[in-house]
Amino acid sequence: MNKKYKYLIRTLLFVGILLIISFRYGPKDTPDVVQGSSNVQTKQIKTSDIVGVWINHHNKDIHQKITFTKNHRWHENQHGVKNIYSGTWKIVGKRTIKLAPYGEKIVINKNNKRQMNVVSYHHILNKQ
């Protein structure tokens, strides 16, 4: 067999093994939460968990309020300006949503579905 083909097959095999390992042992969206002696697994969030008005109580200076609608649209008010940002949202993990068009990830608190963390900005939002 030609040396090029041997290297190509070895490289593909190596990449395949790395992919299998990363899917098997890589980070999960929500690990099991241990309480006492029993394992409690976080449940998948639903649209109804997200729909509503969420207010930033963590950083009150920006007066941030995000409204999520059941048709998967969102809009944000800040500093007294209405609809300063808007777009669509979708559920992308067990407790994670993603805001388009910005690609912003928001993670719902695993112990309190009425609280979320805007990952990039470390903003804590609470459901009104």
Q: What do you see in this structure?
A:
With 128 residues, this protein is α+β, with helices and mostly antiparallel strands. The protein has two helices and ten strands; from the N terminus they run H-E-E-H-E-E-E-E-E-E-E-E. The strands form two sheets. The protein has an eight-stranded antiparallel beta barrel with strand order 3-4-5-6-7-8-9-10. The longest helix is centred in the first third of the chain and has 23 residues, at 3-25. The radius of gyration is 20 Å and the shape is elongated. The termini are far apart. Mean pLDDT is 85; it is low at 30-39.
Helix-strand blueprint:
Layout lengths: L2 H23 L7 E3 L2 E3 L6 H4 L1 E5 L8 E4 L4 E6 L2 E11 L4 E5 L3 E5 L6 E4 L4 E5 L1
Antiparallel strand pairs: 1-2, 3-4, 3-10, 4-5, 5-6, 6-7, 7-8, 8-9, 9-10
Short description:
The protein is α+β, with helices and mostly antiparallel strands and 128 residues long. It is built from two helices and ten strands, in the order H-E-E-H-E-E-E-E-E-E-E-E. It has an eight-stranded antiparallel beta barrel with strand order 3-4-5-6-7-8-9-10. It has a two-stranded antiparallel ribbon with strand order 1-2.
